[in-house]
Amino acid sequence: MASEEDVGTADSVVLADGVRMPLVGLGMLHVSSEEAIEPVRFALEAGYRAIDTAAVYGNEAGVGQAIRESALERDDVFVTTKVWNTDHGYDETMRAFDKSLGRLGLDYVDLYLIHWPMVSVGKIAETWRALEEIKRQGRTRSIGVSNFMVKHLEQLARDSDEVPSVNQIELHPWLQQRELEGYHAAHGIRTEAWSPLGQGKVLQNPTVMAIGARHKKSAAQVILRWHIDCGRVVIPKSVNGARIRENIDVFDFVLDSDEMAAMASLNTDRRIGSHPDSPPTVGLPFDD
């Protein structure tokens, strides 16, 4: 469960390294660079203060343009990007980060993640060492991982004393990843849920809809609120203005203990995306 800071009107959390991170961000998977500009611009105007992208998404340039052209100060927007699977290794990651920062057109990012563990490549330690160096240089405020399981986090802990601030993982009512979240809680790692709505497949669930009816909230809002009440960061993806606005309108209610228990009962360990042991080998094309 979340701490008192994480519930109600609180819209951000402090990571273990002291960096403050918004609880709700806009995910940018499967959106082209040109198509990303308008939804990012709209989201920032609607109150979002976090945008999640990645090198492989091919839209860092559009995301960066929208941020630079907004009326917000750079420090007001939390920007996450990620190193792709083909760029593991110290030198490769350093070059990949330079390219990402160039495409974004920013002086720094707020969170830089290893996108997948890529155990078959065998360079987790080298790649993490590059992230540590990028952080030391002040070009990212925080570093973390994505799609890491407990075994991958334990391997990383053997190779480095610096613990990831965040692990961004597939997590939704059907896939609640309780063992992994327990490890996160024990080691000060913040859980960030990608596909927090289960790609929309959970929205017609009767339990979720009944909770929504009680709160006069949509099923999506109930699920996002459940994540937040569990202490997670969420990055729902949308390019639709109405849904973008709806997805951040979740700070005026909380779920009670019975509703939280009902949400917990929905777990079936059903994964929708790739398994960390079988990561995608190709992604969306992007320009250097």
Automatic annotation (TrEMBL):
<feature type="region of interest" description="Disordered">
    <location>
        <begin position="269"/>
        <end position="288"/>
    </location>
</feature>
<dbReference type="InterPro" id="IPR018170">
    <property type="entry name" value="Aldo/ket_reductase_CS"/>
</dbReference>
<protein>
    <submittedName>
        <fullName>2,5-diketo-D-gluconate reductase A</fullName>
        <ecNumber>1.1.1.346</ecNumber>
    </submittedName>
</protein>
<dbReference type="InterPro" id="IPR020471">
    <property type="entry name" value="AKR"/>
</dbReference>
<keyword id="KW-0521">NADP</keyword>
<feature type="domain" description="NADP-dependent oxidoreductase">
    <location>
        <begin position="30"/>
        <end position="267"/>
    </location>
</feature>
<dbReference type="GO" id="GO:0016616">
    <property type="term" value="F:oxidoreductase activity, acting on the CH-OH group of donors, NAD or NADP as acceptor"/>
</dbReference>
<feature type="site" description="Lowers pKa of active site Tyr">
    <location>
        <position position="82"/>
    </location>
</feature>
<dbReference type="Pfam" id="PF00248">
    <property type="entry name" value="Aldo_ket_red"/>
</dbReference>
<dbReference type="InterPro" id="IPR036812">
    <property type="entry name" value="NAD(P)_OxRdtase_dom_sf"/>
</dbReference>
<keyword id="KW-0560">Oxidoreductase</keyword>
<dbReference type="InterPro" id="IPR023210">
    <property type="entry name" value="NADP_OxRdtase_dom"/>
</dbReference>
<feature type="binding site">
    <location>
        <position position="115"/>
    </location>
    <ligand>
        <name>substrate</name>
    </ligand>
</feature>
<comment type="similarity">
    <text>Belongs to the aldo/keto reductase family.</text>
</comment>
<feature type="active site" description="Proton donor">
    <location>
        <position position="57"/>
    </location>
</feature>
